[in-house]
Amino acid sequence: MKMKKSEATRQHILETGRKLIAEQGFSSMGLSVLLKTAGVPKGSFYHYFESKEHFGCVLVQQYINERMKNLNGMFETDALTMREKLFQYWQFWENCQHSGDASKHCLIVKLSAEVADISEDMRTLLAKMNSSIEQRLGDVIEAGVQEGSIALILNARMTAQMLYQMWLGASLIGKVTRDKKPLQKALEVTEIMLPAA
Predict the structure, then answer these.
(1) pTM, 2 dp
(2) What are the domain boundaries of the chain?
(3) Superfamily of structural domain 1-49
(4) Which of 41, 55, 58, 138 could lock onto 157 through a cystine, CB 3.0 to 4.6 A?
(5) 82-108 pLDDT, tens per residue?
């Protein structure tokens, strides 16, 4: 189905903004730069978004929807064990964070520290996403224990939370140091925390 012109323009602004935020950050991306790069007039922006913060919230929500769809797609395939699916997810994360294309890097890592103190709405969306991903990971860990691909662990929910937070931290440190080692170490620790049965 062909996208309507107005929806295509809105999507173009969002995609352009996402790329600029990946390169510069949310605070550094001025609306004039966004509009010039997108090639749209100021009125078009305000037709779709009430403010820059509203634009940020829409962008974050869109990213959340994409991320959860991709996550569910990885976990719903029948070809792999639950443990294999989890490690496919971690490998995907590592590959994205080490991509030369900044737009493929995790938007949560990029925005969490930057917007937590300047936008309560964006902070709330990011917090909800973190909680949703931790919940989904916990579900998959529990399913892996039940199917016998993951050795019995004390608490699947707590393990999921610890793993996710470790990967977020490793991604942030890797960004600061421009080094692959933090995520490689995170993968090693994940192997220990999710032992094969």
Answers:
(1) 0.85
(2) 1-49, 58-193
(3) Homeodomain-like (1.10.10.60)
(4) 138
(5) 999 999 999 988 888 877 777 777 788
